[in-house]
Design brief:
Elements (H helix, E strand, L loop, with lengths): L15 H28 L5 H8 L6 E3 L22 E8 L2 E8 L10 H17 L3 E5 L9 H18 L5 E5 L2 E3 L1 H8 L2 E5 L4 E3 L3 H8 L5 H5 L1 H6 L5 E3 L2 H12 L23 H4 L15 H8 L6 E3 L7 E8 L2 E8 L10 H16 L4 E7 L6 H5 L2 H14 L4 E10 H6 L9 E4 L4 E3 L3 H8 L1 H5 L3 H18 L4 H5 L5 E2 L5 H11 L18
Parallel strand pairs: 3-4, 4-5, 5-7, 6-8, 7-9, 12-13, 13-14, 14-15, 14-16, 15-17
Antiparallel strand pairs: 1-2, 2-3, 10-11, 11-12
Helix pairs in contact: 3-4, 4-5, 12-14, 16-18
The structure holds hexanoyl-coenzyme A.
Length: about 525
């Protein structure tokens, strides 16, 4: 049992030396608790809260605050156990020389749960991040609201959620999930911008399997309920690292692409940008297969346009039909959104729409230009999608692109059919520069579908052989006249039809031209995105 009386002095103090000895004893108590935490965490192949912070920040830069905070609860025998820190390590540091504020739960203290004192600590950390305009990083390993502190614990979680919402779109909020995170400890990271999880040791859910069984009778496991695989498939997390080090490293790389706050710009890096067309650029001239039904690797396109081929994908295992992530062009961060023809032929379904919309809104909030690569046969039709609300949920794409004011450059690679054309960074939704490859097909739908819709009655009247011949002829005519980029280019909806090998240079020129773009939205309290 530790710290029975919160401010009782372990030594009699009359001299400065006595005061220093007193401080030293109190620090020893923290060290002893840290040693105990280390043994317990390491036994579960987990790091301690302080070790986790050290993994993330520049060596020696972490300044801990509120290490002497203790809870003041007297219920459930809590008066006999008042450990320093109250299950949270909080403070500020630098990451690659940039300021961050952060907190990390200590699961070895009451399951890392949050009561009043713990709540006051984490609120102080986020308030500090907001005051100075720096990113907030949370390291989560917690059972959520502390049962012993009842409604106070709930109140602090709700207050924290409100602070996170206030900070949303003002400072980047990044989280690590590195243990079983229940209730508020899972909700709060979900409210933020990006979540990275470490494999084997991490879970996130409303509550754990035991409570689920007690409440609903359902038997389930940590893995099924909110393990890394499930959390990625549901879109709850953006990255699953092989271990804590891997997850932390991903978060640091991501941070390198982000500004400190919504009034600043992401850091600019040196780049080896070649102003000449390279062999890598020329490879794009032969990338698109001759058959529309064949796919290619969209990462081959992205990697040839961003600096050094370095692309940090987010939510790689969720809605794989759309790819989102960060790269740089001439050293400046760019957010990439691209259809992936290898999954659902690149069609937009509900998950893809929600994934891309949230990513676009993040980029827009933090002054990150958006580069869109289009090869989309449209929204995914069908009973399942309609019943799950694709109209409401798919329209988020329209909303996100339409409200965004950051520079937007779009390249149509192949199909740009129907609603897919409209939402994937079209000129009509406010894109600034729209390129198309000669292989682009900008149309309401593909030739085969269009011919059937337009000639249904006429074709039905024909015999089988004649119908096949007529269909073939009509399809060829449609392809000739409509399945190309020129119909759109003639109207100025496409600014230039370019050779694929020119893409990197032209995208870079367009983004450079747009760097000081200014655009504002009409004054309003906030919009009403279909949620
Ligand atoms: C206080 C808690 C606790 C809690 C666990 N512990 N949950 N203490 N408040 N909510 C304690 C245990 O008593 C135990 O203490 C230690 O933490 C470890 O717990 P275990 O169950 O042994 O660990 P494990 O098997 O790993 O399971 C972890 C768990 C599970 C999945 C988190 O404990 C669980 O499901 N807890 C309940 C989670 C929950 O329902 N939280 C409240 C959600 S409501 P000892 O002393 O034995 O080490 C909420 C409000 C959200 O958060 C509001 C959002 C705005």
């Amino acid at each position: 049992m530790t710290g029975k009386l919160s401010s009782e002095s372990p030594v009699r103090k009359s001299t400065t030396a006595d005061h220093l000895a007193d401080l030293s004893l109190r620090r020893d108590e923290i060290q002893t608790a840290e040693k105990r935490a280390l043994d317990r965490q390491h036994a579960k192949s987990k790091l301690t809260a302080r070790e986790r912070i050290e993994l993330l920040v520049d060596p020696g830069s972490f300044v801990e605050i509120d290490a002497f905070v203790r809870h003041r609860c007297n219920d459930f025998g809590m008066e006999d156990n008042r450990p320093y820190g109250d299950g949270a390590v909080t403070g500020f540091a630098t990451v690659d020389g940039r300021r961050v504020c952060l907190y990390a739960h200590d699961f070895t203290v009451l399951g890392g749960s949050m009561g009043v004192a713990h709540g006051e600590k984490v609120l102080k950390a986020i308030d500090m991040a907001m005051k100075v305009g720096c990113p907030m990083i949370t390291i989560n390993d917690s059972a959520g609201a502390r049962i012993q502190e009842g409604v106070d614990a709930l109140g602090y979680y709700a207050t924290l959620a409100r602070r996170v919402v206030r900070a949303s779109g003002v400072i980047p909020q990044l989280s690590l999930i590195v243990g079983p995170c229940a209730g508020g400890a899972a909700y709060v990271p979900s409210l933020g911008d990006f979540v990275a999880m470490a494999d084997e040791i991490s879970y996130m859910f409303v509550t754990g399997p035991d409570v689920v069984h007690t409440v609903t009778g359902e038997r389930t496991t940590f893995e099924e309920l909110g393990g890394p695989e499930v959390s990625m498939e549901t879109g709850n997390v953006h990255f699953v690292g092989a271990d804590e080090q891997d997850a932390a490293s991903w978060l640091k790389t991501l941070l390198g692409h982000l500004p400190d706050n919504n009034m600043s710009h992401p850091p600019v890096y040196d780049s080896d940008f070649s102003p000449e067309i390279t062999q890598s650029d020329l490879d794009l001239d032969t990338l698109i297969p001759d058959s529309l039904n064949m796919s290619y690797d969209i990462f081959d396109v992205i990697g040839r346009v961003v600096d050094d081929g370095e692309f940090l994908e987010t939510q790689a295992g969720f809605a794989r039909n759309v790819v989102c992530g960060m790269g740089r062009v001439q050293g400046h961060t760019v957010g990439v959104v691209a259809n992936n023809p290898r999954f659902l032929a690149g069609a937009l379904d509900i998950d893809a729409s929600e994934k891309a919309s949230r990513f676009v809104r993040f980029c827009d909030a933090f002054n990150i230009p958006i580069l869109t690569f289009v090869d989309v046969p449209g929204y995914l039709p069908g009973l399942d999608q309609e019943r799950r609300g694709i109209l409401r949920r798919g329209s988020k794409m329209l909303y996100a692109y339409s409200e965004s004011t950051v520079p937007k450059v779009t390249v149509v690679l192949r199909k740009a059919y129907g609603g897919g054309y409209a939402v994937m960074g079209s000129k009509h939704l406010g894109a600034d520069v729209n390129f198309a490859w000669p292989t682009a097909e900008v149309a309401v739908m593909g030739a085969v579908g269009a011919v059937q819709v337009l000639n249904k009655r006429k074709l039905a009247e024909l015999g089988e052989t004649e119908r096949a011949e007529a269909t073939e002829k009509l399809t060829a005519e449609y392809e000739q006249n409509f399945s190309n980029p020129y119909f759109a280019a003639e109207r100025g909806y496409i600014d230039a039809v370019i050779q694929p090998s020119q893409t990197r240079l032209l995208v870079a020129s367009a983004l450079a031209m747009l760097r000081d773009k200014q655009e504002s939205l009409p004054a309003k309290k906030h919009g009403n995105i279909p949620l």
